[in-house]
Amino acid sequence: MTEETPAPEDDAPASETRRNVLLEGITAVVSFLLIAVPSTLAGVFFMDPILRKRKTAGGGDDMAGFIKLDLTADAVPDDGAPVAVTVKSDLVDAWNRFRDVPVGSIWLRKSEDGTIKVFNSICPHLGCSVNYRRSENDFYCPCHTSSFSLDGEKTNEVPPRDMDSLELRTATDGIPSEDGLELWVKFLNFKGATTEKIPV
Amino acid sequence: MNALISWLDDRTGIKGLMNEALYERVPGGARWRYVWGSTLVFTFTLQVITGFMLWSAYSPSTRTAWESVYYIQHEMTMGFLIRGIHHFAAQAMVVLMAIHLVQVVIDGAYKAPREVNFWLGMVLMMIVLGLSLTGYLLPWDQKGYYATQVTTNIMSVTPGVGSEVQVLAQGGSQYGHMTLTRFFAMHAGVLPALLVAFLVLHIYVFRRHGLTVHDENHAPTTNFWPDQVLKDAVACLIVLAVVMLLAIFKGAELSAPADPAVKFDAARPEWYFLFLFRFLRFHAVEAIGLQFGAIVVPGLIMGVIALMPLTHKFLGDFGHTLNKAFIWLLGGCIVVLTAMAMIEDSNEAAHQAALAEAHRDAGRARELASGPDKIPVDGAVELLRRDPFTQGPRLFAKHCSSCHRYNGHDGRGSLITEKTEAGDVQVLPPTAADLGNFASRDWMRSIVVDYPAHFASWKNANWYKDAVKAEEAGEDVLYLDPDNSEMSDWSGLPEAITAPENEENLKAIVEFLYAEAGHGFQSASSENGASKEALDAALIEKGRAVATEGAWAGDIEGTSCADCHTSLGDDFAVTPDDEADGYPTLAKYGSAAWLKDFIRHPGAARHYGDKNQMPAYSPSQLTDTELDLLVRWMTADYLPSDVADYPDRRQQESTVSTDAGNSPPAEDAN
Fold it and tell me: Residue B578 is part of which domain span?
């Protein structure tokens, strides 16, 4: 731009002011649209993960949502020692479906009354992995030192809640039965850093 | 507000900047003819916005590129629109760039002192063309893959460094993951950065010299804001509207996933490169060499354009006239060549068939990818490779269509033709049955009721003609004769079979035979409940009795198919030659098991025996996998499809055509 370009006031006679205000208004609106339309579309596109309808788990069937473990009930130690088990399932990741791949890890432990308790191994604090600490005979997260009793109850102030227990069913050939040896678990992950247990 | 602006201005000088940006003088008044540069900047902004969004979902590798673009296009919220806008705005940019260039030349805006800005504009043009070229490959679909192959092969003939340039562009000696990562880095990183840098320079130099005023006395001098800005904004809004309408109603295409093993006859560059494509197709150009057509000529054209400021400097007004003439001539050539390419393509049956097949594959890939199993980890390309609906027709065309037809065509929609001595192209008659309705109710009924007509196509075959000649010469020949055989004798009693008292029996036997073939579509139900292909269980049982126990009425009472075809109604079993009953086995006739055995051993005693004329397909000619795909296609054993199938061409086939334009060359059929 050259120096002799006049300042706006200089060449805007009063008679034209009204026309200019109108013109400026229209210009501003059109210009705004030019950026707003594509930006809004872009925003909606970027929000896709939130806008996407969640697929509801198929109900009806007794075992819907339950995943069969490789481990059987008789392989869980009677002395109450916890065992870690990898949960395998079909995993849908955007455009792929992975068949029978590890989707998470759980702790199983036989209580004194013989019932088996299951915990998600993800720490309810901030999502690290909870380990079994042999020296203290408790569960312990090495990231921020959360600790839990073997029943999953928190034993220090670090974690916001107890370990996340999961629903377990015993079955025979996929049909629920009290003394079945198959272990079926409803595997879920939960939101970290909250006192409430909220599935994600 | 004012205080805030003053505060900011104090520290940044923003007011001055805004004044400078908005209060550019426009001598001769605001005009529509000045809008083109602004529309280009706007289109680029559109590309940046939509490009960043696509980037957030795109995954550059040969096993995820098509897949992620499929996901964007068909599954993500507004994905089709974001991709559509990006796709069509890219094309709009090329069009607007051409208009901008033509206008700059006509208005003489390249003349001193604006030469440098003209050259900057040419650099920008190269960058934009580079962006469209690199972007075309990224979806990794058949269309982009094969079109870009042509470009990188052209690169390879660059004198001296060609093959190195090609390897660098491809990231290896052939296309692969690295081709995509490198193209993507260029498309989303290097080229846009260069474009921004050169655009800043371009606009800076433009502002330095001001607008090239077309007619100073057109109207009183005004300011850029708001008069010209409004015109610019309205023009941009029109561009946006056109792009969005195209994105919504036409949509960006995504053809089938790239497969180096599947040739793509429909390959064409993006339409704005069609002129160059057509130019290279001239045999005269090809004779001089690819280097000449693909590198020297485009290079010369760019050279002449780049030299326009000098042409004017040395030749004055005559030079300007020359420049204008050149740009009009170039534009004219481009329009003519583009039109030629388009008209030729639309008249070429082979290209249209290839396009139709490309759409079929694209639709099928989408259908499979959206199926319950989604896309396998080894990529969407495997979906099509394992799909009978996709592979069956290709296998049929390759192995079966020299004798058989499928609804009158070769399986892939093309008529089988040959050139006569007179030079006409004529449709070749089939020498074996048309398998388009194989094992359907119509097929079964036709065999029972009119065997001679059903297999009449045998009479076109040389083996038949030879056999008839030999027979007339008194020789004793054994051959399949649709008119004179036990079956034609039996089937030649249509009065009895089609008599009213047998009407229900005929219907039943057809239903029974049809059920025995057990094709996939029988269990498929349409949206309105049971499909017309669904079976009628009561009728089947009645038909079984007619076929195996002779429950006919009237003249043929007591006769049954099983009198000769003793295994009818049984499960298909491979009967050794010495145990065969001497008649073709009809055990599960038309089923996958029967068909596989028949294709492998048509001359076995359990099939046509000594009379057989069909070549046996051994695993070395047709692998087990291929046989499986072919048979599953013929027996409709695949995920049902709503994709438009190859057209039925039986009508065209029956009228011997001399319309050369309507038929691909005969060598298409193997």
Answer: 435-524+531-654
